Amino acid sequence: MELELRHLRLLRTVAEVGSISRAAAVLGYSQQSVSAQLQRIERHFGLPVFARGSSGVEPTSFGVDVLSQARDVLARMEVLGRHCPKDADPLPSAVRLAATNTPILPGMVARLKTRLPGVAIKVSSVYSSSEIVELLERDELDIALGVDYPGMELQHSDAVAHRGIVTEPTFVALPTGHRLGHRSEIVLGDLADEAWFLTPNDGAGWPEVFYTACHTAGFTPTTVHEYLGDRRQLQEMIANGLGVSMVQATTRPSPGVLVKPLAGTPLWCRYLLAWRRESLSEQLVDLVLSVASAAYGDLIASSPHAQAWLSRVYRPSRS
Q: Domain 168-267 carries which CATH code?
């Protein structure tokens, strides 16, 4: 098959609504036809674009890259289809952007400055995703990068909207001399006796999801150090054998540190874009989502451990 714009629109819609059945309703097709078309598209790529679950679908890390390029193509086609410049919504003079603890931010902001040279991007750091929602609802922010977790979707009023960027597995950071360091993946229960570095409550479900995963694995952490500080300092403490820590899948390990996936992937985290509906146009939101996805794609490209996990979990179809 050859990819057409309608295929890209289908992918974009499925990503935006997070469900094949809801995408079918938006597109005006049956669920069966959308599902079949999506399967044909994925066979064309040889890798799944979406991971299916009981609560809907989320882009795979491979899918993030596909969706970033699809959105870019569709955005360019929409520009070509405009008959006159006045059809485009005017750009704001400044955008107030906040972000929680996410490595997506630097690459995203760099791309925004290139794509929007006349717009001042004002960046602030806000750790708690629930606080981000409050700032958006009080009109103190325009848009933000936040997180949530499967089954614990970010809550907000109708004044705010959000879209997922990517849902990624949570990995673990160990010292290079760790007794389990030779394994390709780590069983969470085998870390029951470890000291843990944990970031504090993020207002979105962490560290509750961590403790739930530990309980499911048959243990309760006995030594926990609450830590919210410099990532380099955290890795230095791990390298010195002071504890282990859950980390983002794209974390670049410092000398003396190993980053490993967890067997069975008991923990997932979703990066998302939240914005104030009255502040930004749909076109601008689409652009920000596109550059955020592209920034995440760059992180994956520079993370060999994440690529190795992807190659094991998402194998190309042989059919």
A: 3.40.190.10
Domain 5-81 sits in CATH at 1.10.10.10
pLDDT digit string, tens, across residues 143-169: 999 999 988 889 999 999 998 888 889
Q: What is the pTM for the complete model shown?
A: 0.75
Q: If we measure between CA atoms, which residue out of 52, 163, 32 comes closest to residue 24?
A: 32
Token pair for residue 108? 């995203």
Output the CA torsion sign for 200, 205, 211, 217. negative
In terms of CATH architecture, what is 90-165+269-306? Answer: 3-Layer(aba) Sandwich (3.40)
Chain centroid to CA 250: how far? 11
90-165+269-306 and 168-267 have identical folds:
yes
